[in-house]
Specification:
By secondary structure, the chain is α/β, with parallel strands linked by helices. It has eleven helices and eleven strands. Strands 2-5-8-1-9 form a five-stranded parallel sheet. A two-stranded antiparallel sheet has the order 3-4. A hairpin with a 4-residue loop joins strand 3 and strand 4. It is globular and about 70 Å long. It starts with a strand and ends with a helix. About 25% of the residues are buried. The mean pLDDT is about 85.
């Protein structure tokens, strides 16, 4: 399943969102609050000694769930971040001498508080690249915030969320998504978009060369293709079109493009660069 990197302001109901999603699909939900004193075993689990039986037994950590909310991931030290990212990449966890496969579907939403920097550990670019998407969540508008106030101050019983789909159906949909047809021309379109972040001058984008410190990795190409297939599947199409790529491109690419000091000084964002690339690269 897709793995999201969710950068959001505090108190925007991120926990409620993913918890409600888990309830809607009848999945197991787990929330991990990342703190500077967190240990890898607090995420993956550990071996515990039983004095009565004179033996060790495995106590699995919160990573063993279908939907994981890794809250404020940048507050945990590198070892804890690596433990989480290894589980995301390998879909398995090793405790002691035993390896345990994680259940499918497996979805991680990691949040980062963009306001506070004290006591945080910035994620290295190579680790951020492992996330399929980065979604920016901003504050609600006035009407939405008014509805939030109304729902909280009035004595309204919480909405009961009934499952509308089960995990077997989600896994079936996951396999069907991989069968969505993607033409060779669409593959070339994806490659051109990614290569334009690495060698912009080859695509008539020389003005972007001074704003990009490093381009997107091969994971960007893979995730663009997979996300486009998923978007086509949700649109009830059995094939990918260029509009699928354009729709999901910023979410997949924004955390994979490094910006230079010159770009930051001129308030040029990764979204601006992606938009310029999409306007320039030939569409099949």
């Amino acid at each position: 399943m897709a793995i999201f990197y969710w950068k959001a302001f505090p108190d925007l109901q991120k926990t409620l969102t993913i918890k409600s999603l888990a309830q809607a699909v009848n999945a197991k939900f787990s929330r991990i609050q990342f703190t500077p004193d967190l240990l890898p075993a607090d995420v993956t689990g550990t071996m515990i000694y039983n004095q009565q039986r004179n033996e060790f037994f495995v106590r699995k950590g919160p990573i063993f769930a279908n939907f994981i909310l890794a809250d404020e991931i940048n507050r945990a030290p590198a070892k804890v971040q690596s433990a989480l990212l290894e589980a995301m990449q390998e879909k398995q966890v090793t405790i002691g001498d035993q390896t345990y496969l994680l259940e499918e579907p497996f979805l991680v939403l990691a949040t980062q508080n963009p306001l506070e920097q004290e006591g945080t550990y910035p994620l290295p670019e190579a680790q951020v690249d492992r996330f399929m998407m980065k979604i920016i969540v901003s504050y609600p508008d006035k009407n939405e915030e008014q509805l939030i106030i109304r729902s909280q101050v009035q004595d309204i019983p919480p909405t009961v969320i009934h499952p509308v789909i089960n995990l077997d159906e989600i896994n079936t949909g996951k396999h069907l998504t991989r069968q969505v047809y993607i033409d060779e021309k669409i593959e070339k379109y994806i490659v051109d978009i990614v290569f334009a972040t690495r060698f912009p001058e080859q695509y008539g984008l020389s003005k972007l060369k001074s704003t990009i410190s490093y381009g997107a990795s091969p994971r960007a190409s893979i995730n663009l293709a997979m996300a486009a297939k998923a978007h086509a599947f949700m649109q009830k199409r059995g094939f990918v079109i260029p509009d699928d790529i354009k729709t999901i491109c910023k979410d997949v690419m924004r955390h994979r493009i490094g910006l230079t000091y010159e770009a930051e000084a001129e308030n040029i964002t990764a979204e601006t660069i992606v938009s310029e690339i999409l306007r320039t690269v030939n569409v099949p």
